[in-house]
């Protein structure tokens, strides 16, 4: 997931040399506005804004669609039952189970909101390495322990993945062939148990090494640089656009009351 958000090997057509903390702040503002939107009209505006940010990022269309497909595979599993659990007018019936129009609308809205937020985060985090991202979170005054956990997690997830790969290779070298048997499940239990033991042992050794180097609970960071004129114009302009789109809710509410087309808004 972190690789999907951060890693990129493509040079953007329109380079965006903006302070990382402002890019994260814009992503947070758009995400909050999307979550609180209740009508389709503002969501359409945020969708167009997300596509615009995607276009300006270093992520190609194919790479972005692959990442969206991976996220949507999880989201669909969480909303697939909403049409059958939400009360309302009957849309269709499957095996005696009734699906409602309200449930279908709610599921579609959740799916759309999730995709908009993922696109915005993907576009704004593209090109940032783990250190830059954690430093930007610290500059936004996020809780120090949360930032520290993120820094260590990003650093050592790949290490634990390598450890897992070594253990799996050792199992294969000993003739392990997985199947649906008690021996297979017992072997996987031993595998994850050994992963836990090795993780705890490595954590102790890392902590001692950090203490030997004078670690006092905080990684040394540079002073926060002042915002440039481009930074101020970037965050100011996009926040104005977000506010304008957010106020489309008022327009949608007025249309729903006066014209009676709420289901389309």
Question: What topology emerges from the helices and strands here?
Answer:
Layout: H1 2-6, H2 20-36, H3 40-56, H4 61-79, H5 82-85, E1 90-94, E2 97-100, H6 101-125, H7 130-139, H8 144-173, H9 182-212, H10 229-246, H11 248-258
Antiparallel strand pairs: 1-2
Helix pairs in contact: 2-6, 2-7, 2-10, 3-6, 4-6, 7-8
Give a quick rundown of the structure:
The protein is mostly helical and 265 residues long. Helices cover 71% and strands 3% of the residues.
Description of the molecule:
The protein is mainly alpha-helical and 265 residues long. The protein contains eleven helices and two strands, in the order αααααββαααααα. Strands 1-2 form a two-stranded antiparallel ribbon. A hairpin with a 2-residue loop joins strand 1 (90-94) and strand 2. It is flat. Mean pLDDT is 81; it is low at 1-15.
What key phrases describe this protein's structure?
265 residues, single chain, 11 helices, two-stranded antiparallel sheet, 3% strand, flat, mainly alpha, 2 strands
Number of helices: 11
Shape: flat
Rg, Cα atoms, Å:
24 Å
Going across the major beta sheet, what is the strand order?
Answer: 1-2
Q: What does the main sheet amount to? A: 2 strands, antiparallel
Helix share, percent: over 70%
SS-derived structural category: mainly alpha
Low-confidence stretches: 1-15
Question: How many β-strand runs?
Answer: 2
Q: In what range is the share of β-strand residues?
A: under 5%
* End-to-end C-alpha gap: 33 Å
Average pLDDT: 81
* Strand and helix order: HHHHHEEHHHHHH
């Amino acid at each position: 997931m972190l690789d999907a958000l951060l890693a990129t090997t493509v040079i953007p057509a329109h380079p965006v040399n903006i302070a990382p903390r402002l890019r994260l702040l814009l992503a947070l503002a758009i995400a909050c506005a999307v979550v609180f939107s209740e009508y389709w009209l503002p969501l359409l505006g945020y969708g167009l804004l997300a596509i615009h940010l995607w276009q300006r990022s270093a992520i190609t269309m194919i790479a972005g669609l692959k990442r969206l497909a991976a996220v949507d595979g999880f989201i669909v599993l969480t909303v697939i039952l909403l049409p059958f659990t939400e009360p309302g007018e009957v849309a269709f019936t499957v095996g005696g189970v009734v699906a409602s129009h309200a449930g279908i609308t709610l599921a579609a809205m959740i799916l759309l909101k999730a995709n908009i937020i993922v696109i915005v985060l993907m576009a704004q985090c593209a090109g940032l390495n783990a250190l830059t991202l954690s430093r930007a979170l610290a500059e936004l005054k996020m809780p120090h322990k949360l930032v520290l956990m993120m820094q260590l997690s990003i650093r050592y997830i790949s290490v634990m993945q390598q450890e897992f790969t070594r253990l799996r290779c050792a199992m294969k070298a000993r003739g392990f062939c997985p199947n649906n048997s008690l021996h297979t499940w017992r072997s996987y239990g031993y595998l994850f148990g050994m992963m836990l033991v090795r993780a705890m042992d490595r954590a102790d050794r890392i902590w001692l090494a950090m203490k030997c180097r004078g670690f006092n609970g905080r990684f040394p960071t540079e002073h926060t640089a002042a915002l440039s004129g481009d930074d101020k114009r970037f965050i100011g302009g996009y926040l104005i656009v977000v506010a304008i789109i957010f106020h489309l809710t008022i327009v949608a509410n007025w249309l729903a009351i006066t014209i009676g087309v709420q289901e389309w808004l």
